[in-house]
Design brief:
Length: 164
């Protein structure tokens, strides 16, 4: 996440709405300093209120992450890909909090997890699969608390547990 915020801060058009020459000169100096430092520091990132799409790439050029920000917070869909190009995750955010359906995939393309978020907490049914397609876990959450679930330990059986 921090890496994505750093990327977003680099994409931020610094002080692009400058009202006068002095502000434009200050913006240019800040931009030059950031380039010399190799990017923004943590203090700059914490003050950045980036709005727009941020994208990160693997060294091989394959897209790694794409996320939408509004006023410095994740808002909308965030998508991630494995280095082989297979989709890794699709999660929705509202004002910086996970909200709605989240789906994850293994690098082989098989589904890894499916669940719902409400106010940044797991809520409702969740299922997790091994990379061979066998179920690993099925459970129900309420406001972030596991209510009940079943976890399969191996192909010889499973363990059931209940959480209050």
């Amino acid at each position: 996440m921090k890496k994505l915020i750093v990327l977003c801060a680099l994409l931020l058009p610094l002080f692009s709405l400058a009202q006068n020459d002095e502000a434009e000169d200050q913006a240019a100096a800040t931009s030059d300093r950031l380039i010399e430092q190799g990017g923004p520091d943590d203090d700059f990132i914490s003050k950045a209120l980036y709005t727009g799409v941020a994208t990160d790439f693997y060294p091989n050029g394959q897209k790694k992450l794409e996320a939408n920000f509004v006023n410095g917070k994740l808002d909308g869909v965030m998508m991630a890909w494995h280095e082989n190009g297979q989709k890794e995750a699709e999660t929705y955010f509202v004002k910086g909090k996970r909200e709605g359906l989240m789906t994850m995939w293994h690098a082989n393309g098989r589904r890894k997890a499916l669940g719902n978020w409400v106010n940044d907490k797991p809520d409702g049914p969740w299922t997790v699969w091994y990379d061979n397609g066998q179920r690993e876990f099925v459970g129900t959450y309420q406001s972030g608390q596991l209510i009940m679930g079943t976890q399969w330990r191996d192909e010889n059986g499973h363990t059931q547990f209940r959480s209050d």
